[in-house]
């Protein structure tokens, strides 16, 4: 039926000219356009040729993002050369088949939103995974630029999250060396370590820690592990890996509504839950060495190698080449050259002040193991130990002047405070709470929060 409709529309165009086209309904025109765009992705030369002729004749500037997306998805196909020629002819740009250059140019232009773009995206990516069709459609709320949502190269949960994985004791974790990197959690007395060498292959774990439903989300591309409490307003959201990225940052999805969630924001941005006011609570985390974490927490539980998957879980095996350079796998609209792309920063954003993000260079914190700052009215300090691990505590106007690098901090009045993962506590019973913070690559944090303040 759609093919017949398309042929009729083309015949009308050639017989009656532009006036007849103008008189067609928007629905007919959009349906014909959508058919032709998707025919380019089918790989059938005759349909591709007809589609290209149609696009040439019915060019609209708003087609630009869709043609770039087709070229990105079909990099080696003969039709891509013709797509690029059409793009260059109509836009005046000359990027050839450099898809990143096309995207960089596009993202620095005003948004181009054609009425069929969301349905095009749905139809295009369902060819890869039928589940992708649910992510995009014209009737879904979209809070971010749709052209910045790029496919990451895997299907839904193609990088499989670890759901309630097996844990073992520290003594049983003989596969770990002291200098292996772990992500440490201590929530309501429940102490656990999730080694980077395992988590990098899965990029997410779903677990219950300290009585809370937790999703630990690891975006390897932007170097960020964030623990989120997945219960919000009485609903526990079952999250997974969508297969798509936004500004080189993984997008999550929830199983109930197939909404897409921004990892660094902790909120849904496309789908039924977008604009629902949901922002997941983020918790604190420690990025440290296994030897240092085990020394501090000898009773810790550790992620088992028995994950149910066959992977090379040796240290550094996952993303070795990516981590070894400053190059990006997926480009972003703007880079900030004050730091190198993959320089690590401690990223802070507090619920009370969501419009005042802060990034502090990890190297700076190593040189300043007691660092004091404030965001809004919230005063805090960052303590950095010999492993490079950062812990952030509120300071409530106190100035701390000494730290043994382990368990005791001293304020300017000579008062000693005992350090634990969830608080600082003085001998006279006062308590300063731990605040959420996590590490990130500079480019990833800046892409999500371009208004961030940087200390370096």
Provide the descriptors you would attach to this structure in a database record.
single chain, 456 residues, alpha+beta, five-stranded antiparallel beta sheet, five-stranded mixed beta sheet, 13 helices, elongated
Secondary structure layout plus pairing:
Layout: H1 2-16, H2 18-23, H3 26-40, H4 45-57, H5 64-73, H6 78-91, H7 99-107, H8 117-125, E1 149-151, E2 162-163, E3 167-169, E4 181-187, E5 190-195, H9 196-199, E6 204-209, E7 212-219, E8 224-229, E9 231-232, E10 235-236, E11 239-246, E12 249-254, E13 260-262, E14 267-270, E15 281-282, E16 286-289, H10 290-296, E17 301-303, H11 320-323, E18 344-350, E19 353-361, H12 362-367, E20 370-375, E21 378-384, E22 390-394, E23 400-403, E24 408-411, E25 416-419, E26 423-426, E27 431-433, E28 438-441, H13 442-448, E29 453-455
Parallel strand pairs: 2-6, 5-17, 19-29
Antiparallel strand pairs: 1-11, 3-17, 4-5, 4-16, 6-7, 7-8, 8-15, 9-10, 11-12, 12-13, 13-14, 18-19, 18-28, 20-21, 21-22, 23-24, 24-25, 25-26, 26-27
Helix pairs in contact: 1-3, 3-4, 4-6, 5-6, 5-7
Describe the overall structure.
It is a single chain. It is elongated, with a radius of gyration of 25 Å. Helix 1 crosses helix 3 and helix 4 (45-57) runs parallel beside helix 6 (78-91). It is of the alpha+beta class and 456 residues long. Helices cover 26% and strands 30% of the residues. The chain contains 13 helices and 29 strands. Strand 6 and strand 7 form a beta hairpin. The strands form 7 sheets. The protein has a 5-stranded antiparallel β-sheet with strand order 1-11-12-13-14, with no helix packed on it. A 5-stranded mixed β-sheet has the order 2-6-7-8-15, with no helix packed on it.
